[in-house]
Amino acid sequence: AVVSTQSTGAFRMFEKNLHDLVRGIRTNKNNESKFIASCIEEIRNEIKTDNMSLKMHGIIKLVYLQMLGYDMSWANFTTIEVMSASKFTYKRVGYLAASQSFHENTDLLMLATNMIRKDLCSVNQYESSLALS
Q: What is the spatial distance between Cα 102 and Cα 104, in angstroms, rounded to a whole number?
């Protein structure tokens, strides 16, 4: 977990990473919907921060929840933000989330298309290949 400090002392920015989320879902079979609802609330708080690492980790967890059938369309703008990150690892997560959750009627599709076009023209071969995939 990531720990952040303020003048009032240390507090946890978020409690669960992807591994903890998967383990928690498996151990909370009787209370799965309540557990996932609390995780989604935590993810909402993560993606509201300015920290791109927290946003990326939140998007990773949302991608997993999307595979389980939960809607992640409310985080589409954050997905675009992660796609536009300068770090390749963040950008890769953003592209994965976009390919999984965006469809032809997504409001932000034009932004995603422009991001792909920008990355296709990049001099960085990894960014160009990511945009092609």
A: 7
DSSP string, 30-80: GGHHHHHHHHHHHHHHHHTSS-HHHHHHHHHHHHHHHHTT---GGGHHHHH
pTM of the model: 0.81
CA 102, CA 82: separation in Å to the nearest integer? 14
pLDDT digits (tens, 9 = 90+) for 117-133: 999 999 999 889 988 88
Q: How far apart are CA 92 and CA 132, in angstroms?
A: 12
* Strand bridging mode 9-12 / 3-6: antiparallel
How far does CA 107 lie from the centroid of its chain?
18
Answer for the pair 82, 90: CB distance below 8 angstroms, yes or no: yes
As a whole number of angstroms, the distance between CA 39 and CA 45 comes to: 10
Residue that the structure tokens 């557990």 belong to: 35
